[in-house]
Design brief:
There is one protein chain. This protein is α/β, with parallel strands linked by helices. 45% of the residues lie in helices and 14% in strands. The chain is elongated and about 55 Å long.
Length: 238
């Protein structure tokens, strides 16, 4: 997987070699970072750019297992930047784990602009979603925004977030689904029964049935397969 936009920056490249307009503004305080990606050159490029932005310590990991070990050893860093397509597990699950262990800021750097991946990353707790094909300035802007306490979406995926979780019903009228309704529909798509869904989400089977009834009313169909198909076409579930 080539680091298209970031390939201009390498760890050995001095900041002065970059055009003045591309040199990030230095931050007043040093910050610590964990970079998780299975491609060494990309990790080096990210580390170089972070150093220019004021990173004092950059830890690196090439897999979910390595990231977990690093996270356990260091404790929460100020920032984590991670790929979703790791060789030994789910990047989305890693986002959730880090957030649950007190990591305050997480940036996803991915190769895919798939709507489900974008929404899942933010729902899991990421503050930014950047594409590996992004220009160095977009990456810098996104990271700086997160360090300053904000959120950021790559300009090419921002329209995906703007649509929220709207699913066109059988009459083609967009209906907004709640986050819980999306979770329920995803588990239906995974082939789980109401009882299994309830166990997964700590809900009663009756509550799951109520969620499905509301989804059915919104989408204009009580057929589970059709509800799933409508949500998949809208990119709300995978």
């Amino acid at each position: 997987m080539a680091a298209v936009g970031l390939s201009q920056a390498v760890r050995s490249t001095p900041a002065g070699a970059l055009p003045a307009s591309m040199v990030p503004h230095p931050r007043e305080e040093l910050f610590s970072v964990l970079v998780v990606d299975d491609h060494p050159l990309l990790r080096e490029a990210i580390a170089a750019r972070l150093a220019q932005m004021g990173a004092g310590t950059v830890h690196e990991a090439a897999s979910v297992a390595e990231a977990r070990a690093r996270a356990t050893a260091t404790g929460p860093c100020d920032l984590a930047i991670l790929d979703l397509g790791l060789p030994d597990g789910s990047g989305i699950e890693l986002v959730t784990e880090l957030r649950n262990h007190g990591w305050p800021r997480i940036v996803v750097l991915a190769s895919s602009d798939d709507p489900y991946a974008v929404r899942s990353a933010f729902q899991a707790g990421a503050q930014a979603y950047l594409l590996k094909s992004a220009s160095p300035m977009v990456v810098t802007d996104g990271v700086r925004r997160v360090l300053d306490g904000g959120v950021y979406a790559d300009p090419s995926v921002a329209p995906v977030l703007a649509t929220g979780t709207r699913v066109p019903g059988t009459d083609n009228t967009p209906r907004e689904l709640s986050a819980r309704e999306v979770e329920v529909l995803q588990l239906v798509a995974d082939g789980q029964s109401n009882k299994e869904i309830g166990e997964e989400l700590s809900l009663s089977a009756l509550t799951v049935k109520s969620h499905l009834s509301r989804i059915g009313r919104k989408l204009g169909t009580g057929d589970r397969a059709q509800m799933v198909a409508l949500a998949m076409r809208a990119g709300v579930i995978r």
